[in-house]
Amino acid sequence: MPAVLIIQFLDFFQSFFSAYHVFVQVASHNFEKFLADKQIILHLLQMSLAEQILLPSGSEAVVPQPGEPQNLGDLSTAGQFSLVYWPHQCEVIRDRIEHIDWIPTNPEPLYTTTGLEMTPPYQTPDKGTTSVLLLPLPDKNSCFMYSQVKDLCPLKQILHQEGDNTLIFEARFESGNLQKVVKVNEFEYQLTLRTDLYTSRHTQWYYFQVSNTQAGMPYRFTIVNFTKRNSLYKRGLRPLLYSEADAKEHKVGWRRTGDDIKYYKTSVGQDGRQYFSLTWTFQFPYDQDTCYFAHCYPYTYSNLQEYLVAISKDPVKSRFCKIHILCHSLAGNTVYALTITNPPKSDKDTERKAVILTARVHPGETNSSWIMKGFLDYILGDSGKAQLLRDNFVFKVVPMLNPDGVIVGNHRCSLTGQDLNRKYKSNGKKFYPSIWYTRKMIKR
Ligand SMILES: [Zn+2]
């Protein structure tokens, strides 16, 4: 067994602080002994045994059975990557959401607390307020049944009247997350995030679209159902804004924005639980613009597939980067694995150490995908150091361990409603296929 180096890009600090878990360990000759001795590796294999969850009978027929790793070969060279599968309960708009790549010229601006920030109270929806968005919330006691490829174009939840300046919200797209919006005042909205599918927990990630904007008006958004006591929003983090008009006119992409930012206990505990609110004020740059807000720079499953297509079509990179199907997720989405190494130079050149990297076990931690992209840009590049690394190591990369969670806009879980980062010791091949096959890949 070759020595193994394993790195996991986790994250959990979303943001410009760019902190992330990186687990690095170099194995001794005996891999099994290494595992026993070192007990580090990713959190891998050291987690408690998983509880098995039971899917209702009949569901098995629609869950693709993960098979042996399959080389994409012709598939990838043809650029034919797989379709995106959604749980059947999810509504999805037809529009393809795309954002330009843009690197801000200055470091992200921090918000400095003044002590004068407002803390808008939680508004129960009956006090003269108007619901402007209300998406179906799958029952937390339900579970994943089957998936579909979506190309639906449902009507807006609330039909818009001409001359009405009420903002229009939308989140039924890849990685979108927003469940309910209540208009509290002319320019003030109270937002509720959708919990991870089939759970009643895990709200942190948000990503939604707003249209029918008015430039220069004093808008306030308050997200009322965060569950964590502490937040980087207490330390200067600002929400991200993306303006389609700014992207088109000025080639400006995602940027941190907002003032009067406050993260605080929600005044009324809904359903007996303590929630936390994030409130901020801002102005839209243009009238009748379509804008987006997000917790951290989005990186969707489709973004990953586009990136992999580009690699597979690159005559140089595709020589030393092979893209495989590691397995399929519960919903049937392809979990990709990459093998990166230069072709052997001689017959003796066969034993190379393996380096294993994984990212995006937690869907809301998009920064791990950006770190992974940075790594792949580097290791597939033509610098002397990258070539040397490819000459001496085999890099095994699983860039997105939890595609289903990423697609549906979860923060932490897969479609089992479980945290995959706690399932490395599980034998639940059927329920946690990406984890099971990654572990198998490491053992090989
Ligand atoms: Zn994490």
TrEMBL record:
Compartment list = Cytoplasm, Cytosol
Q: Keywords, A to Z? A: Carboxypeptidase, Hydrolase, Protease
Q: Required cofactors, per record?
A: Zn(2+)
Q: Where is the major localization of this protein?
A: cytoplasm
Q: Under the cellular component aspect of Gene Ontology, which terms does the record hold?
A: cytosol
Concerning InterPro entries, the annotation shows: Cytosolic_carboxypeptidase, Pepdidase_M14_N, Peptidase_M14
Q: Which reaction does it catalyse?
A: (L-glutamyl)(n+1)-gamma-L-glutamyl-L-glutamyl-[protein] + H2O = (L-glutamyl)(n)-gamma-L-glutamyl-L-glutamyl-[protein] + L-glutamate
An example Gene Ontology biological process:
proteolysis
MF terms per GO, please?
metallocarboxypeptidase activity; zinc ion binding
State if Nucleus is listed as a keyword: no
- Which residue intervals define the domain Peptidase M14 in the entry? 297-444
Tell me the protein family, please. Answer: Belongs to the peptidase M14 family.
Report what the protein is called.
Answer: AGBL carboxypeptidase 3
